[in-house]
Write a structure and sequence with these properties.
Its EC number is 6.3.5.-. The chain is mainly alpha-helical. The protein has helices at 6-15, 22-45, 74-78, and strands at residues 84-85, 88-89. It has a two-stranded antiparallel ribbon with strand order 1-2.
């Protein structure tokens, strides 16, 4: 398996618009090469009879069916508000108008 070169790391950094120093390129090239080697090893271990998975445990749909239920009236919704105006919560102004 060919190793990843410093120039390839620099090219990837340019594509990702990441600025790397010379020291960072020298440091990352062997690390990325090791990652690619390890991914290759994992790919070799994967057997054809094992289906690919995204989770170790099976997931089930946890969504419930939509049901129409009565909602709060404006009066009920605003009953606990410290201040209300025109069926809306009244809050202090935090931005000045220009």
């Amino acid at each position: 398996m060919p190793s990843i070169t410093r120039e390839e790391v620099a090219h990837l950094a340019r594509l990702a618009r990441i600025e790397l120093t010379d020291d960072e390129l020298d440091h990352l090239a062997p690390q990325l090469d090791q990652i690619i080697t390890l991914v290759g090893q994992v790919s070799q271990v994967a057997a054809d009879d094992i289906p690919p998975t995204s989770h170790a445990l099976p997931l089930t749909n946890v969504m419930r069916a939509d049901e129409n239920v009565p909602c709060l009236t404006p009066e009920q919704a605003l009953s606990g508000a410290p201040a209300a105006e025109e069926q809306r919560f009244r809050v202090p102004r935090i931005l000045e108008e220009d």
